[in-house]
Specification:
With about 55 residues, this protein is an all-alpha fold. The protein has one domain. Helices cover about 90% and strands about 0% of the residues. The protein is built from 1 helix and no strands. It starts with a helix and ends with a helix.
Length: about 55
């Protein structure tokens, strides 16, 4: 029983690290479309200002 508890306690930080990376990846995938839209608007405005068709 003690060995099992030791294995669980040693595996917990690894799982937490994986969950952290998974959450970071999910956030990036969620923010990516918004970044693309903002960049498109920015380039459109820059094109209008500089007169580029």
């Amino acid at each position: 029983m003690a060995r099992r508890a030791e294995r669980i306690s040693t595996a917990t930080p690894k799982l937490e690290a994986r969950q952290l990376w998974s959450a970071a990846a999910a956030m990036c995938l969620t923010l990516l479309p918004m970044v693309v839209v903002v960049a498109g608007v920015w380039m459109s405005v820059a094109g209008l200002i500089t007169g580029t068709p």
